[in-house]
Amino acid sequence: MQFLLPYLPLAVLIVVVAFVVLVVRGAVKLMWQVAEPNEALIISGFTRGSAGTTDGMDFKIVTGKGAFVIPGLQTVRTLSLTLNETELQVNCVTSQGIQVVVQGVVIFKIGDSTPFIANAARRFLGQQPKMESQVYNVFEGHLRSIIGSMTMEEIIRERDKLASQVRSASGVEMEKLGLVVDSLQIKDLEDPTGYIQNLAKPHIAQVQMEARIAEATRNREASEKEAEAASMIADAQSISAIKQSAAQANAETARANAAQAGPLADATARQKVVVQETEVAKLEADREEQKLQTTVRKPADAKAYAQRTEAEAQKAADISAAEARARKTELEAQANATAAAATAGATRVTGEAEAAATKARGEAAASSIKAKALAEADGIKARAEALGANQEAVISQQLAENMPAIVAAAAEPFAHVGQMTVLNGGEGINKMVGGVLSQVGSYLPALTSALRDGKAKGGAAGAGKAAPQEPPHA
Asked: Which regions are flagged for Basic and acidic residues bias (predicted)?
């Protein structure tokens, strides 16, 4: 403890200094007042000649900074500088004598300059709520005065002008109160007499008419657009239906072709078979024709040719014999005529000789004609005998020779058909070809009968023609 004794005075001094500092700090804090940004400090008391006072003021105004206030000698109070507003609802009469209720709002505050703050402090310090009623009274009077000099149309069209005039008229009074107007707005005009409503009716009617016209125009345009859209939709649907129909038709055609593929193949195969059978029938007809040629016609022609040759040979022999006899008779007559010339009866003998020669020549000519007729009669008789013996074979041969023409005549109606559809495939083709062949078969009996009658008539005519005629005798 003894070593601390020399430091005791220093410690006491430090304690005393700290106490004094604390006391001074507390006192300074108690006396130093700072103004907020939206308020003003009004310091009254011992302030004469101090900073912040102006000529004629017995108080001090402090804004935006601090100041010492000596307790007991000075008093400090605050004055708010914030905005305030007052609702206006004033009954006015226009220059036209029309009653109108004006509704508006005034936004005001205490001015920021020292004179405004001083005026407001003298009038409203401690009584700031009274500012709203004072401002209302000021603006009510000026608003009635200005509206009384304006018409209802001017008030409606020139609200800004009305607000500006009211602010200008109240500016001096507001300055005396230490107040400034930040904004004056006319919110609404009430018209108890209905003047504004009646004034607006023509315009409302015009606007309604234009609105109806515009609506009708828009409806018409919308209807036209809808009609165009419906037409385009109908066209698109029509095109789609056409395409679908075409696709369906193609599909049906493909299905029909597929369904007919088998019958068509059968018909094609059957057609080939019919063609081959037709070729075979033609070959058989040719064979029958060759057979008829070999077995019937050629032997008959050979026999007729032999008979005709024999008849011609016999005719030639008879003609030669007749000519020889006639020559002999003529020579004998000439000889007799020559011999009789020597006699007295030469004339009679000569006449008889000439008569005998003439008779001989006539007999020779008659014999020649008779031989030729006999030869032709024999040939016709041979053909008639051949026809009588093999009539059916000859008719069959002629039918075979003319069979292509008969089949072509039976199929003639099909030559004028441009397009023919055969149903039931190969069975339909078989029925069609069988019909043609059955028609040809129905023709054959009539043709055979006609050929048989023709042959009979031809034979009879040939037999009559072949009958020999006796030549006249000279």
From this structure: 282-291
Spatial CB neighbours of 448, under 8 Å, sequence gap ≥ 6: 395, 399
| DSSP-assigned beta bridge partners for residue 186 | 104
DSSP for residue 473:
P
Task: Determine the Cα–Cα distance for residues 248 and 189; give it in Å rounded to an integer.
Answer: 76
Residue 223 three-state SS: helix
Alpha-carbon distances of 241 from 57, 217, 237, 248, 397, rounded to whole Å? 102, 35, 6, 10, 66
Domain residue extents for the chain? 2-79, 81-193, 267-466
Task: Residue 329: name the closest of 351, 349, 350, 359 by CA.
Answer: 359
Is-contact 124 131, C-beta < 8 A? yes
Residue in 198, 196, 181 with CA at minimum distance from that of residue 143: 181
Gap between the Cα atoms of 410 and 441, Å rounded: 10
pLDDT in tens, 416-442: 555 555 555 556 656 665 665 666 566
Interaxial angle between packed helices 425-466 and 195-292, expressed in degrees from 0 to 180 and rounded to the nearest 10: 40
Nearest to 329 by CA among 301, 294, 353, 298: 353
Are the CB atoms for 448 and 333 separated by under 8 Å? no
Asked if residues 40 and 78 have their Cβ atoms less than 8 Å apart, the reply is yes
Q: How far apart are CA 396 and CA 444, in angstroms?
A: 10
Strands 66-68 and 74-80, by their bridges, are unpaired
Residues in the chain: 474
At 58-93, the pLDDT tens digits run: 778 888 787 767 776 778 888 888 888 899 999 999
Residues 198 and 167: their CA atoms lie apart, in Å, by 30
pLDDT in tens, 31-54: 777 778 888 888 877 765 444 454
* ∠ Cα 139 141 144 (to 5°): 100
Q: CA 93, 95, 97: angle at the middle one, nearest 5?
A: 55
User: Span 81-193: which CATH code?
Assistant: 3.30.479.30
Helix (H, G, I), strand (E, B) or coil at 454: helix
**8 Å CB contact between 52 and 62:** yes
DSSP annotation of 470 reads P
Q: Give me 204's structure tokens.
A: 């409302």
DSSP at 268: H
Cβ partners under 8 Å of residue 91, min gap 6: 99, 100, 101
Q: What is the pLDDT of residues 358-391, one digit of tens each?
A: 665 666 566 656 656 665 666 556 555 655 555 5
Mean pLDDT, to the nearest integer, of 166-192? 88
Q: Give the whole-angstrom CA distance, residue 326 versus residue 424.
A: 86
Residue 324's φ and ψ, nearest 5 degrees, are -65, -40
The residue among 274 and 443 whose pLDDT is bigger is 274
Do the Cβ atoms of 100 and 186 come closer than 8 Å? no
